[in-house]
Design goal:
It is a single chain. Helices cover 40% and strands 20% of the residues. It contains 15 helices and 19 strands. Strands 3, 4, 8, 9, 10, 13, 14, 15, 16 and 17 form a ten-stranded mixed β-sheet that branches. It folds into three domains: 15-298, no CATH class; 307-420, no CATH class; 428-492, Arc Repressor Mutant, subunit A (Orthogonal Bundle). By secondary structure, it is of the alpha+beta class.
């Protein structure tokens, strides 16, 4: 689609984005040797002749890594290949000690698949297994201004690379796809989701083409983005950068770029490599990987419930709204199991959901946490508290006060209420006495109410609640106060 503007034709462009997600698998040891994969160890302390690429050292495939890859493939509805092959991907970089990376190329472990999004789905091209490279350190060490330091602890860490089709059409949609993949991988237990530690990284291929054109434009690959927010910002910037080049009559260079969060820009790194640049050939030291039906079946039996299925179940079984089910079942870490445990302890599903999204989430943010499983208030304690509210033993405002004490002391709700005398005043005579006292002490608002200005009724209810020190039942106060006001008004009228 195009139009004339200021004497020149303006072209409307469509954004095309595909992602490559590098996921570190949760294994105790590396993919081809027995070195530990623990993060944060002293540099070059988790290395051996295999992951250092020393002559004569032979790789042995880690079965646990393959099982993790199979779990991811099953969850993403991929077609698992009965036979896959490892290859040598040849390139030279300081943190790649062998001079090649063992990866899978033309025969990966899984093909196809899809990632569900809020407005559809993204198709997957493939999932393949590979090893990670080491790490080049450019800052924070002696002589960093003159030397690059190398830490090979990460070399040989097991990865899967999840490659999407170029189905994404906006930066926001790409960020959602990355987020959804992280949710699934963490729920499966195949990745810890720690993007700060580099265990989940994203490369994004982005190009623009005129609307209606089938052929793709020249693409830029934005490398190693490790947060959803940075991915969206990087792609938004890159889309506008390419649009500016095209609209000025230029040509977009096919290249690899890096996101600079300090400047909010992408910077050119190198020209984009193609597959033939890596000179792939089958890894001669590893036989083909054979995955039989029994292995797949054993993995399938251990698959946990995935976030999308859990949300649907919460809607069906607990009558939660779609919004509540999505927040509790998917968006708050640790909330799903906490919610179900609270309901099993006697709380109503809606009340448990409200407290999780309200007071519990607020308190976690106050202490700088986000995982509900770390909350000091147990599901049983929350259920006891919500039951006291639902049965009118305490008011909602008092319940929040009790919640704070549970959080800080671990004492149960009933014990706190009894010890501090916080139970609601439900006796009708006691509430009527409080209402009469408020009516007598506030002739102005009472007269306004009786003159038809009913907005003063809320003030009078608040005055009764204050007089009861928050222990009166608000609904009962409203009923009794309205009855006293209307009755006395009728008595004051002449016969």
């Amino acid at each position: 689609m195009s139009r004339w503007s200021g004497g020149r034709m303006s072209v409307h462009y469509e954004t095309v984005i595909g992602l490559e997600i590098h996921c570190q698998l949760l294994t105790e040891t590396k993919i081809f040797c027995g070195c530990r994969t623990a993060f944060g160890a002293a540099p070059n302390s988790h290395v051996c002749p295999v992951c250092l690429g020393l002559p004569g050292a032979l790789p042995v495939l880690n079965r646990q890594a393959v099982t993790c890859a199979l779990r991811a493939a099953l969850a993403l509805n991929c077609e698992i290949q009965p036979v896959s092959v490892f290859a040598r991907k040849n390139y030279f970089y300081p943190d790649l000690p062998k001079g090649y990376q063992i990866s899978q190329y033309d025969r990966p472990i899984a093909l196809g698949g899809r990632v569900p999004l809020s407005d559809g789905e993204v198709r997957l091209t493939r999932i393949h297994m590979e090893e990670d490279a080491g790490k080049s350190l450019h800052h924070g060490l002696p002589d960093s201004d003159r030397h690059t330091y190398l830490d090979f602890n990460r070399a040989g860490t097991p990865l899967i690379e999840i490659v999407t089709e170029p189905d994404l059409r906006s930066a926001a949609q790409a960020a959602e796809c990355f987020s959804r993949l992280r949710e699934i991988l963490v729920a499966l237990g195949v990745n810890d989701g720690s993007m700060e530690e580099g265990s989940l990284r994203c490369d994004a291929n982005v190009s623009l083409r005129p609307v209606g054109q089938a052929a793709y434009g020249a693409k830029a690959e934005v490398k190693n983005v490790n947060s959803f927010r940075f991915l969206e910002k990087a792609l938004d910037y890159e889309i506008e950068r390419q649009r500016g080049i095209l609209e000025s009559g230029g040509r977009v260079a096919q290249e690899t770029r890096l996101w600079d969060s300090a400047t909010g820009t992408t910077q050119s790194m190198r020209s984009k490599e193609e597959a033939n640049d890596y000179r792939y050939f089958p890894e001669p030291d590893l036989p083909p990987l054979v995955v039989d039906a029994a292995w797949i079946a054993s993995v399938r039996e251990t698959m946990p419930e995935l976030p999308v299925a859990r949300v649907a179940r919460f809607i069906r079984d607990y009558a939660l709204s779609e919004y509540d089910a999505d927040v509790v079942g998917r968006l708050i870490p640790g909330a799903a199991s906490y919610f179900e445990a609270t309901v099993r302890c006697g709380a109503s599903p809606k009340t448990a959901s409200n407290w999780i999204q309200g007071e519990l989430r607020r308190k976690l943010k106050d202490v700088g946490a986000d995982d509900l499983s770390t909350a000091p208030v147990t599901p049983a304690q929350l259920a006891e508290l919500t039951t006291l509210v639902d049965t009118n033993v305490v008011s909602s405002s008092v319940a929040k006060e009790v919640f704070e004490e549970i959080w800080s002391t671990g004492t149960g709700a009933r014990a706190i209420v009894d010890a501090r005398g916080l139970a609601q005043i439900g006796d009708a005579d006691a509430l009527a006495a409080l209402a009469d006292a408020v009516i007598e002490a506030n002739p102005g608002p009472v007269a306004q109410y009786r003159a038809g200005k009913t907005q003063t009724f809320g003030f009078l209810v608040g005055a009764v609640m204050k007089a009861s020190k928050g222990k009166a039942n608000p609904a009962a106060v409203s009923d009794i106060l309205r009855g006293r006001l209307d009755a006395k008004q009728g008595q004051s009228e002449p016969e």
